[in-house]
Amino acid sequence: MKIKNLFITGALCLGLLTGCGNNSNVDTDKDTKEETKVETSDNTDDTAKNEESKVEKSEETSSDDLSNLSFEEIAEKAKGSSVNFYGWGGDDKRNQWIDTYVIPKVKEQYDVTVNRVPMDIDEINNLMLAEKDSTDGNIDVVWINGENFANAKENGMLYGPFTKQLPNYNDYVDENSSSVNSDFGEPVENMEAPYGGAQFVFIYDSSKIDTPPKNAQELLELAKANPGKITYASLPDFTGSAFIRNIISDIQGYEDFMDKNLTKDQLKEMLKPTIDYLNELKPYLWNEGKSYPPDNPTLANMFADGEVIMAMSYNPNNASIGYADGLYDENVRTFVFDKGNIANTHFLAISKGAKNKAGAMVLINFILSPEAQISKAYPETLGDLPIISYDKLTDEQKKMYDEIPTGELTLSNKVLEEHKIPEMPAQIVPLIEEIWEEEVLN
């Protein structure tokens, strides 16, 4: 049976597309111009109208700025409103969790109606760009990370900083953690709140692999012993790209690749050991490395059908999720390299042009609650790693956290934490992908 897309991809688009301008305020602008147009017969009335327009504009701006309000005041302001939650809609389990858990709970606790709007990140970026100077935009909350966050932040498309106003952020999130204060090397600066955790893992068939490889060299040896039975998704697929970066970290270490200002020429020179390794691996891959699966879901299908003996995912609970859904059998297991596997955090941000910033903050605060974070961590629910700090939980909350099932198919949170290594800066990821295409694919 072919496996459906169960992967947390973060849906990273590698650049902002140019959006069309937002014409939603054209009529208002026209009316304002007519209202304040100079009438030679009555300059006094004209001045009064202009002053009135300035006051109204000032009040509108101040009502859009929530920085001086307490969370209680923000929640009261949001009461009875609707908030639009934009994000990639390709994860059925995540959609179900939002629809059946988040939406009813937020309505019950805050009297705020959440509208989930599925949309690809490139379209979201376009819309945020078009709406960034609006006060009546469609996007309130956006699921975002990586280069998309860096671009949105640089182009003034986000509202904030706002996380310090959220009680659940202050009470349960370790803001000093690098996984919280940095997003693919970009300082977060309280412009987005953590949503959940992810970590790159390998998945294998234990009936065909006795001992999984502990490093890149052992992976090469395994491929040589099983020609045509191992491969990875063609870049720029998100998970395929993560595989390459994980190989870089294992062979060369990640420390020298944390400078976001590295040029392509510099990277090409630095990456020679990894490129040599990938080209040595290539002829032992599926189809002798002449082609690669176009994306990670295709690789997952190949693994489910027994065409290959290994797969990979950025969801460390993928094996347990697949088993719970009847898509994997009991032989599926998960492993990481001894030196560690790349981990990152996906985030929630508020669009600068959001119509309902108060509702957005209420929704994000709820998602940061221990109950919400723990609920989505169950493999049968979503398998998304909690982003809350265990040390900040109460004894009762720690008990709930400890009861999250993993099973032998999935590595424990403790093992994952011990083998966590950071992502490389978002700015150099597309350059690495270009170098792979030029030096390995071709």
Describe the structure concisely:
With about 450 residues, this protein is of the alpha/beta class.
Explain what the structure shows.
The protein is α/β, with parallel strands linked by helices and 442 residues long. It has 2 domains: 71-195 and 346-407, Periplasmic binding protein-like II (D-Maltodextrin-Binding Protein, domain 2, 3-Layer(aba) Sandwich); 199-343 and 421-441, D-Maltodextrin-Binding Protein, domain 2 (3-Layer(aba) Sandwich). 43% of the residues lie in helices and 13% in strands. It has 19 helices and 12 strands. The strands form 3 sheets. Strands 1, 2, 3, 4, 7, 11 and 12 form a 7-stranded mixed sheet that branches. The protein has a 3-stranded antiparallel sheet with strand order 9-8-10. Strands 5-6 form a two-stranded antiparallel sheet. Strand 5 and strand 6 (186-187) form a beta hairpin. Helix 3 crosses helix 15 (357-367). The longest helix has 22 residues, at 43-64. The chain starts with 25 loop residues before the first helix and ends with a helix.
The CATH homologous superfamily of the largest domain corresponds to Periplasmic binding protein-like II
Structural class from helices and strands? Answer: alpha/beta
The helix content is 40-55%
pLDDT below 50 for ≥5 consecutive residues: which ranges? 1-62
CATH top level class name of the largest domain? Alpha Beta
Average per-residue pLDDT, rounded, comes to: 86
**How many separate structural domains?**
2
| Cα gyration radius (Å) | 24 Å
Q: How widely separated are the two ends?
A: 33 Å
CATH architectural group of the largest domain: 3-Layer(aba) Sandwich
The amount of beta strand, in percent, is 5-15%
